[in-house]
């Protein structure tokens, strides 16, 4: 043992990976612009802003992974000349380009909403004709948490949409899927090809940012097998090692894949306390070549993001079965700066706990109108 | 928030405290002779070997605690001139002296085995007459993991026992209690006086060192109320803040207190995964003045110490529901260098998992003769 894992990125995902790695005597190093990042408390941060940074980072560890989905492929190519990266480059390249991603879903027969590539005003007009309205126009690369997107509801928005997103050159137009809810599935694949899957999370957003996840997703027993099947196809096709996330829409026609993230995911933070082995520990185990841990749920859980502004810790921790995770980030509107996990003994308490929490949080919790989850 | 907690000691207990503190954005500093100690990965270690060390340590944090039971009282006295220490000095002083400890148990009507103070060969002979044989002679101060003890089985051992332990000046002779098993109870008391208790652990030793703990202790439902009552008396009497451990013998006359430890305890390591809130997190919460977390068990658990020599991580992690905690200590006979937590979905698997583990561990696991737990 005593491996060192080098991680591209040094945000809260890296922080929680390193927290999981420490009891296994696995050290982490981080490649990150901001050396005062959330991961800094747990390992050496090598600045990505210096000329020698990447070489230093490559020399700092035995095996490599990432928490930053937009890790430059050029950096990866330099790294993989001498060291191994998990997940594989192809997974990263695919996730960085919505058109490649959709093509992979098609290839593996994973259902997606109808879509079309857009690279000109004319092709956008064509997409509106073919797919109908409303549709969502997205940049093929970049964009997250609702940024880089335009929802087209009428034909007279076509020029505005093109003016806003057109400069990105490569766009994708997607049919506006009518879905009852959004879920995500997270799975891990070991170096020996073993796959383990956590139960589906039901995800709720507020202004395009994840507000909270409920796990297991209510009434999801019938959805779980298809979701597991889809993510397993992706993992095996990509010869993937580590944790992969697949976001899905629940529609009347069944599950539609939205996008994949080649990394641990916000909708899997519940697993730190709620599963026997968390997404972070299993990712570290996979990258280090160790056997995977059990992904069973120990208790039904709700994970709530802390966005923009911190609540009072003493108010949060007074809630029954509450766990608090602060990322050591400064407050800023729309920024994920921590999360809370609720796992009361009696899961019927989850709704009332969320209501209590909604009163404490400085930023709204996206509960339904009747304040249920 | 953003409090810093200064901890006397920097071993694995400090390491696991700091691991629990980190998600709460609480930093730890450590006062320790060996700056390359297990806690070093998680916070500043201030050397106790330098002249300015203690003053530096006192300035390094807002509030103080300890993981080292033999923290010198003189250091505590200097500290408490300007800063608060949890647990209180009196708890530490009492736990450092077996005679004071027994006197406190007597005062609070917590049953103990008959005992007598010994400070001369004559008083040892007197104790043998009064208490009968066999008896255990122990130094009143110092000694742990079976060191500083002599089991007297016949009168002709009196001189040998006195020769070995007499130089310590202050000794205690205890009746050799016939007990069916040893259990321990761990509780935490907050700054508002709230007390929470984990279920009893059943502890098994090998050569005087804890081998493994089973939680909840089998057939302990009838014992739990008395144990909780005893530890609550201690906590309230001492106006204690933080985690306290009470070791008990199960005898035909009921529970007898053996000793208390004014700190998190090896027999509570299971709680990292097996309880909603671990002993480490609750200790940190109490010291920081935060509300306490739930001490409920999420699954029956066996915690096994790794003593002297590391097993292969990949063999341990292949066991269903196994968690591995390595302390980053070098291997040495009789030294606690890590622990393993087993918490399978089906608790009837615990025995078979322990049998598998016994084959993997380089150092014997103290299973019963039929290899059951």
Automatic annotation (TrEMBL), chains A, B:
<feature type="binding site">
    <location>
        <begin position="143"/>
        <end position="149"/>
    </location>
    <ligand>
        <name>ATP</name>
    </ligand>
</feature>
<dbReference type="GO" id="GO:0034028">
    <property type="term" value="F:5-(carboxyamino)imidazole ribonucleotide synthase activity"/>
</dbReference>
<comment type="subunit">
    <text>Homodimer.</text>
</comment>
<dbReference type="InterPro" id="IPR013815">
    <property type="entry name" value="ATP_grasp_subdomain_1"/>
</dbReference>
<feature type="binding site">
    <location>
        <begin position="174"/>
        <end position="177"/>
    </location>
    <ligand>
        <name>ATP</name>
    </ligand>
</feature>
<dbReference type="GO" id="GO:0004638">
    <property type="term" value="F:phosphoribosylaminoimidazole carboxylase activity"/>
</dbReference>
<keyword id="KW-0658">Purine biosynthesis</keyword>
<dbReference type="GO" id="GO:0046872">
    <property type="term" value="F:metal ion binding"/>
</dbReference>
<feature type="binding site">
    <location>
        <begin position="258"/>
        <end position="259"/>
    </location>
    <ligand>
        <name>ATP</name>
    </ligand>
</feature>
<keyword id="KW-0067">ATP-binding</keyword>
<dbReference type="InterPro" id="IPR016185">
    <property type="entry name" value="PreATP-grasp_dom_sf"/>
</dbReference>
<feature type="binding site">
    <location>
        <position position="138"/>
    </location>
    <ligand>
        <name>ATP</name>
    </ligand>
</feature>
<keyword id="KW-0547">Nucleotide-binding</keyword>
<dbReference type="InterPro" id="IPR054350">
    <property type="entry name" value="PurT/PurK_preATP-grasp"/>
</dbReference>
<comment type="similarity">
    <text>Belongs to the PurK/PurT family.</text>
</comment>
<dbReference type="GO" id="GO:0006189">
    <property type="term" value="P:'de novo' IMP biosynthetic process"/>
</dbReference>
<dbReference type="Pfam" id="PF17769">
    <property type="entry name" value="PurK_C"/>
</dbReference>
<dbReference type="Pfam" id="PF02222">
    <property type="entry name" value="ATP-grasp"/>
</dbReference>
<comment type="pathway">
    <text>Purine metabolism; IMP biosynthesis via de novo pathway; 5-amino-1-(5-phospho-D-ribosyl)imidazole-4-carboxylate from 5-amino-1-(5-phospho-D-ribosyl)imidazole (N5-CAIR route): step 1/2.</text>
</comment>
<dbReference type="InterPro" id="IPR011761">
    <property type="entry name" value="ATP-grasp"/>
</dbReference>
<feature type="binding site">
    <location>
        <position position="98"/>
    </location>
    <ligand>
        <name>ATP</name>
    </ligand>
</feature>
<dbReference type="GO" id="GO:0005524">
    <property type="term" value="F:ATP binding"/>
</dbReference>
<dbReference type="InterPro" id="IPR003135">
    <property type="entry name" value="ATP-grasp_carboxylate-amine"/>
</dbReference>
<protein>
    <recommendedName>
        <fullName>N5-carboxyaminoimidazole ribonucleotide synthase</fullName>
        <ecNumber>6.3.4.18</ecNumber>
    </recommendedName>
</protein>
<keyword id="KW-0436">Ligase</keyword>
<feature type="binding site">
    <location>
        <position position="182"/>
    </location>
    <ligand>
        <name>ATP</name>
    </ligand>
</feature>
<comment type="function">
    <text>Catalyzes the ATP-dependent conversion of 5-aminoimidazole ribonucleotide (AIR) and HCO(3)(-) to N5-carboxyaminoimidazole ribonucleotide (N5-CAIR).</text>
</comment>
<feature type="domain" description="ATP-grasp">
    <location>
        <begin position="102"/>
        <end position="288"/>
    </location>
</feature>
<dbReference type="Pfam" id="PF22660">
    <property type="entry name" value="RS_preATP-grasp-like"/>
</dbReference>
<dbReference type="GO" id="GO:0005829">
    <property type="term" value="C:cytosol"/>
</dbReference>
<dbReference type="InterPro" id="IPR011054">
    <property type="entry name" value="Rudment_hybrid_motif"/>
</dbReference>
<dbReference type="InterPro" id="IPR005875">
    <property type="entry name" value="PurK"/>
</dbReference>
<dbReference type="InterPro" id="IPR040686">
    <property type="entry name" value="PurK_C"/>
</dbReference>
<feature type="binding site">
    <location>
        <position position="205"/>
    </location>
    <ligand>
        <name>ATP</name>
    </ligand>
</feature>
<comment type="function">
    <text>Catalyzes the ATP-dependent conversion of 5-aminoimidazole ribonucleotide (AIR) and HCO(3)- to N5-carboxyaminoimidazole ribonucleotide (N5-CAIR).</text>
</comment>
């Amino acid at each position: 043992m005593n491996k060192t894992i080098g991680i591209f990125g040094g945000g809260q995902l890296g922080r929680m990976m390193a927290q999981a790695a420490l009891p296994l005597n696995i050290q982490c190093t981080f490649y990150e612009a901001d050396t005062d990042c959330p991961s800094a408390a747990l390992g050496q941060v090598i600045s990505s802003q210096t000329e020698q940074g990447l070489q230093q980072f490559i020399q700092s560890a035995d095996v490599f992974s990432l928490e930053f989905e937009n890790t430059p492929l050029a950096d990866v190519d330099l790294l993989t000349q001498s060291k191994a990266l998990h997940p594989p480059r192809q997974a990263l390249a695919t996730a960085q380009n919505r058109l490649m991603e959709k093509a992979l879903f098609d290839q593996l027969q994973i259902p997606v909403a109808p879509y079309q590539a857009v690279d000109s005003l004319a092709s956008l007009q064509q997409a509106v004709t073919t797919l109908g309205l409303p549709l969502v126009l997205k940049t093929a690369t970049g964009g997250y948490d609702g940024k880089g997107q335009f929802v087209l509801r009428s034909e007279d928005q076509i020029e505005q949409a093109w003016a806003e997103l057109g400069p990105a050159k490569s766009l994708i137009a997607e049919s506006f899927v009518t879905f009852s809810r959004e879920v995500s599935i997270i799975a891990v694949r070991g170096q020996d090809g073993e796959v383990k899957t956590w139960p589906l999370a039901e995800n709720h957003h507020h202004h395009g940012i994840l507000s909270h996840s409920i796990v297991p997703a209510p009434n999801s027993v019938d959805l779980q097998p298809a979701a597991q099947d889809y993510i397993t196809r992706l993992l095996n096709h990509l010869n993937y090692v580590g944790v992969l996330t697949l976001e899905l829409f629940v529609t009347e026609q069944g599950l539609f894949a939205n996008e994949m993230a080649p990394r641990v995911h916000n909708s899997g933070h519940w697993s730190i306390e709620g599963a026997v082995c968390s997404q972070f520990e299993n990712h570290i185990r996979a990258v280090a070549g160790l056997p995977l841990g059990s992904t069973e749920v120990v208790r039904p859980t709700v994970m709530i993001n802390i966005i923009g502004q911190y609540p009072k810790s003493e108010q949060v921790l007074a809630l029954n079965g509450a766990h608090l995770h602060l990322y050591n980030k400064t407050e800023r509107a729309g920024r994920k700066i921590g999360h809370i996990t609720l796992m009361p003994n009696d899961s019927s308490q989850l709704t009332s706990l969320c209501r209590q929490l909604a009163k404490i949080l400085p930023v709204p919790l996206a509960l339904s109108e009747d304040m249920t989850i």
